[in-house]
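Milestone 3.1: sequence recovery, worked example.
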């Protein structure tokens, strides 16, 4: 029997350590998928960012088209008496009418925000961050579209604002998206949640 085994040879059997290593690697991959650090989950978060951005952008774009067609050069429409009105104005400044002398600078800043968000998206694994960045991206694109395509010229266009609360500046849905996204980012930062999904405590 021993002679036969010597001639034929014994079959190759994976050693216990190799089997354990394969199981450990598979377990690590399953954990990555479960906690959101896998590539698939990252792509899903980017998809959420894009969906939120597109929705915010389209809502802003459509609302401005309606305002320009129906409200511009007309009397303000009262929603809640003097507390809230719809009043179409053209704003050459930043959000809420600030800095009208720096239209080109604000255009460059908006474009820079879009580039930064695109870079952050590559390591995005957090759903709240995806929503926050999507709101920022949609709002920035909404106002940047006005800067590029509206009068008086390319990169100097005036943004269409129309939401006019009492004792406050007139703004639009893009401004609202930017503010909401910014507030959410501040909250996430205070909670120690990073865009890559990790949580840190100072």
């Amino acid at each position: 029997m021993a002679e036969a085994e010597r001639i034929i040879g014994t079959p190759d059997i994976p050693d216990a350590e190799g089997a354990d290593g394969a199981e450990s690697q598979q377990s690590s991959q399953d954990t990555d998928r479960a906690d959101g650090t896998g590539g698939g989950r990252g792509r899903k978060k980017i998809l959420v960012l894009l969906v939120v951005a597109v929705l915010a952008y389209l809502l802003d774009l459509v609302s401005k088209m309606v305002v320009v067609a129906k409200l511009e050069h007309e009397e303000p429409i009262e929603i809640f008496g003097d507390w809230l009105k719809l009043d179409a104005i053209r704003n050459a400044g930043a959000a809420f009418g600030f800095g009208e002398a720096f239209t080109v600078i604000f255009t460059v800043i908006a474009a820079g925000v879009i580039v930064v968000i695109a870079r952050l998206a590559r390591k995005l694994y957090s759903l709240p961050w995806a929503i926050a960045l999507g709101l920022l991206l949609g709002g920035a694109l909404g106002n940047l579209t006005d800067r590029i395509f509206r009068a008086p010229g390319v990169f100097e266009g005036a943004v269409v604002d129309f939401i006019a609360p009492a004792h406050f500046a007139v703004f639009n849905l893009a401004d609202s998206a930017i503010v909401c996204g910014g507030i959410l980012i501040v909250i996430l930062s205070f909670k120690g949640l990073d865009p890559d999904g990790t949580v840190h405590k100072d």
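The radius of gyration is 27 Å. Confidence is low (pLDDT under 50) at residues 1-37.
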